[in-house]
Specification:
The chain has 146 residues and is α+β, with helices and mostly antiparallel strands. The protein contains four helices and six strands. Strands 1, 2, 3, 4, 5 and 6 form a six-stranded antiparallel beta sheet that branches. The radius of gyration is 16 Å and the shape is globular. The two termini are 20 Å apart. About 11% of the residues have low confidence.
Length: 146
């Protein structure tokens, strides 16, 4: 744990150097990696869990940061909150034309007792569709992508 935290803390200045983190995708990847590493460590209690969490968090954070603006994220969280299970919610971002279709699954309790939901997210940007599956859990009354 100490070794992993040391490595993570040592790498932070590299990402925070002015001009280094310039896109929303890079910012999302950094935030996702940090969050994923924390969750991975909490779940796995070992370096492997931390590294897997960081990798998954980085990938999802990059995707969300690169493709979704604030309004899209609001729509995504609203789908987790209000959409019936297995019913697709769709929208088109009027500013960039990106299209989204989110199909949440039934809620369940994770090992920590939190309410969670998995959702299939179909994103279409410039005619290119990409499907991902993301899990969000309620933390302090709001949905947080895991």
């Amino acid at each position: 744990m100490k070794k992993t935290m040391f490595i993570a803390l040592a790498l932070i200045p590299l990402f925070l150097t002015p001009g280094c983190v310039t896109t929303n995708g890079q910012k999302g990847a950094l935030g996702g990696a940090a969050g994923g590493a924390i969750i991975g460590q909490a779940i796995g209690h070992n370096t492997g869990g931390t590294l897997i969490g960081a990798a998954v968090g980085s990938l999802f954070g990059y995707m969300v940061g690169n493709e979704m603006d604030k309004a899209d994220k609001s729509q995504l969280y609203n789908a987790y909150e209000t959409s019936p299970s297995r019913k697709t919610t769709q929208w088109v971002n009027p500013d960039n034309g990106n299209q989204y279709a989110v199909t949440p699954q039934p809620a369940y309790k994770d090992n920590a007792g939190r309410n969670c939901r998995e959702a299939e997210i179909l994103t279409t940007i410039d005619g290119n569709a990409e499907k991902t599956v993301a899990t969000a859990c309620r933390v302090n009354g709001r949905w947080v992508i895991q």
